[in-house]
Amino acid sequence: MSLNTWMICGLALYVCFVIYVGFLGAKKIKGLSDFAVAGESMGPIPLGLAFAASFFSAATFMGYVGFCYAWGSTGMWIFLAIFCASTLGFILLAKGVRNSNVELKSISMADWLAKRYNSDVLRGLCSIVFIIQIFYIAGQFSAGGSLLSGMIDGLDYTTAIIGVTIITVLYVTVGGLFADVYTSIGQMCLMIFAGVFVFVSGLMLFKGGLTEVSDILAAQNPYFVTVTNPGALHMYSYATIFGVMFIEFAFAGQPQLLNKIMALKNPKDMSKMIWTWIFASFCCLLVMFGGLYMRAINPSLKVADNAVIEYVKLFHPVISTILSVAIVAALMSTACGLILVITTCISNDLFLKTLVKHGIINMEEEKAERFAYGLTKILPAIIGAISLYLVFNPPPFMGVMVWIGISGVSAATLAPLIFALFLPKIANSKAAIIGAIVGEGVYFYLYLIAHIERSVMAAGAWGVLVSFVVMFVLGNLWKSDLPEAQAQK
Questions:
Q1: So where does this one cross the membrane (predicted)?
Q2: Are 379 and 346 in contact (CB under 8 A)?
Q3: What is the DSSP letter of 64?
Q4: How far apart are CA 270 and CA 296, in angstroms?
């Protein structure tokens, strides 16, 4: 059979799988808590795999591979940043968030921060900030469109992104976090296979292994094998490499990841979840070597993000299909988690616990809860449609579009999260609100307004650092405003 036939069959089987699991998840959803955090009933290994599946999106399997293709081994700083810095962030944040949630019973990151700081203003602010993750979702859909249109003859980019959007929206709407976690287990197995296969296959293609690859890259451009690359968007200096490391640390605190932590049934099982993540993350990150391999094989690709697409075409159609479906699984699992987060923030945090609670919208409690649950069936389609609109014309680097959302959330929320967990004596609500606003403002100004910082990752890191400084200064200044019980912690 041809590659076209194998691809269509493989994708059909995968779509049937995710829709079936979505309907299985639907049977377990009785309310908003089940939709958002699966009723805090999940085990550590499934959640560890789901955490990794949400973490490793198309940004990894296409965007970061594209970085390595475009800028050589300098792009591998992303590998170290994720495996080291993000893992450290996971370890530091996970236990504190889950243990505290035994008492707080939060169903989202905005809800958790609001309860820790006793501030509905912070809840509403975070809910609005999280909407910027639509750029992250859009990046996933763009990757899906590029991949499928590049692998299946006769399928155009627009039709492909519409198909990916419809399937993703359908199964997250029907099954909520149950569907997200269950599908992520199968998706993660495909992603692990893809990472390991790509790495090992390159060692077999090049008789001299990584040494031969490095020699070829150095002959193309000496900066492809140096620590920094002046031509790179993110790794052009030691300062921006620090920014990449720091923002990847912050990535562990993204809302779509924290809701997996909140869903853990027994907080004592957190170490098992972490070790599951460590194994899965290492295997998935190996796919980045595909960018180096493809650069050595063909340095003239017009679109760097297509490097992994061209690489998988080198193998038997069955292998190419499995690898392609693995990438589709990566982008759909992440998009699902992000749609889930934004939907929960709007329906629960913004509507139910901010607008209705404070009488801005006048509605009886029982009716408001039914309405909020109803929103979870409508909002995914709206979010999907907006994301789709953003990428009708594919971006130059989908990894950059993804990080517009990630950096935007981190710049506003990481400092309040860290202070609540580790510096409760100065975790003042007013300081958290101002710190979040200033951090977000710095990020927007540096990258989106004045274009002073060309790296979206570094711009996010500077926003986070400024937010930390503001919170530290104001937290100490307003320490006397803390409730007595919190000040004594």
A1: 6-26, 47-72, 78-97, 117-137, 157-178, 185-206, 235-253, 274-294, 314-343, 371-392, 398-424, 431-450, 456-478
A2: yes
A3: I
A4: 41
Residue pair 141/398 in contact by the 8 Å Cβ criterion: no
- Report yes or no: 62 and 334 within 8 Å, Cβ to Cβ: no
CA nearest 52: which of 17, 82, 20?
82
Report long-range pairs for 222-226 (Cβ below 8 Å, ≥24 apart).
223/71, 223/72, 223/74, 224/71, 224/72, 224/73, 224/74, 224/295, 225/72, 225/73, 226/74
Q: Are 209 and 323 in contact (CB under 8 A)?
A: no
Q: Read off the pLDDT of residues 283-312 as tens digits, 9 standing for 90 and up.
A: 999 999 999 999 999 999 988 888 988 998
Cα(93)–Cα(444) distance, integer angstroms: 26
Contact call for residues 178 and 38 (beta carbons, < 8 A): yes
Neighbour tally for 422: CB within 10 Å: 11
Its CATH class, for the domain covering 3-487, is: mainly alpha
User: pTM score > 0.85 for this model?
Assistant: no
Q: Are 411 and 463 in contact (CB under 8 A)?
A: yes
- In whole angstroms, give the CA distance from residue 216 to residue 214: 5
Least confident range of 155-169, 179-193, 336-350: 179-193
Distance CA 36, CA 394 (A): 31
Partnered with residue 42 across adjacent β-strands are: 264
- Nearest by Cα to 195 from 3, 316, 52: 52
Phi, psi for residue 42 in degrees, rounded to 5 = -100, 155
Q: In this structure, how many other beta carbons lie within 10 angstroms of the beta carbon of residue 268?
A: 12
Of 91-105, 170-184, 299-313, 379-393, where does mean pLDDT reach its minimum? 170-184
Backbone phi and psi for residue 264, each to the nearest 5 degrees, phi listed first: -65, 125
Burial 346-364 (b: 16+ CB within 10 A, else e): bbbbbbbbbbbeeeeeebe
In a 13 Å sphere around the CA of 224, the CA atoms on its Cβ side amount to 22
Closest CA to 418 of 239, 242, 244, 258: 258
Q: Which residues pair with 264 in a beta bridge?
A: 42
The tokens for 236 are: 């052009």
